[in-house]
User: What shape does this take?
Amino acid sequence: MNFEPSTLNSEPSTRYYPGIDGLRCVAIFLVLLQHFAKYIATYFYAGYYGVDLFFVISGFLVTTILLQAPGNSFKQNYIHFIGRRTLRIFPIYYLTILLLWLLSQPVVRENLGYLLTYTFNYAIISKALPKSSVSHFWSLCVEEQFYLFWPFFVLLLKKRTGVLIAVAAAMIVIGYSQGVFSIFPSVDKYNYVSLLTRMAPLGLGAVGAIAANKNRLPKKIFTNAIVEYGMLLLLVTTLATDYAFKLPVLGLCSLYLVLKAALYTFSFTLFNRLLCNKTVVYIGTISYGIYVFHFPVLFYFNNQVFDPVWRSIDFSFLGRFEKYTWHTWIIKLPLYSLMSIGIAAVSFKYIETPMLKLKDRFFKYKGGQRLFKVESSRLKVES
Assistant: This one.
């Protein structure tokens, strides 16, 4: 999935959402938990919800950028949008593919065309590919496919809000209907990785951005502490249980959290402080790199270093505690997480940041307008 920068100083309006970066940290932690500590993650939808939250965030930020694109030139705005996203997403994505290709990773060599064209999400299912160092790229493929068509609707219909909301609503209904009921049985095997289903949370984020743009968010809902605690309780309960409409409920919880984090403050003080903590915000800022690199870290370090060393140790001296040696996630979760964060930090400083500076050199927006009118100590908007 793509991680649109929440610091949009070079976008049409300058605004910063520290709470969104905080949510990104929560989302990436859930993804790492899923892949580095499956023993825990099996008890709830950690990985699914982490990705789902990222999709809602992306739908919100992308639509926000498109809605405030200055001028009426569709061609110019579309080119600017695609150009800026390309500079954000492509560099470390293709660099990772190149490195894995040079390392003769079989799945990369055999599926290079799918990886290069962002269609790998379908190859995973159609070719029944095993888990590999690039399996997680399916979500980045979904994002890139979304970027190709969604800007057309927003840029062409941004002055016809009702129609635009109807399009987004159709995406949400069709996506969740396919995910829950498989209304198109012939493609249901692709449900987990396809744009058809995943456009639902992306659409939810888009609807949130459209409503905020028109100042139509129900303030009483987002400033009511009872509603807030109720939504958090609903989220925790839904993650821990299974029922038919689990997926859309998780999406709605994500939408609430995104809008609340971006435009309001949480009554739950500890959660509010967590989302604004400098370390948490920083991890959220570099979460794209963490996501890209964490699977290669898992597969290469696991196979080449950790597992061989671990299996060579005789743990019989532990006696009755020997059984805990099977719970390697206790070590792998913090170790692999720190490794992924470290690599992502280096990547962000020396690769991603220099590339981001090229945005204004080649695809600079001229002019701008105020986007949101919601009062918030967390939201900063400048013309």
Summary: DSSP finds 18 helices and two strands in the chain. The longest strand covers residues 14-16.
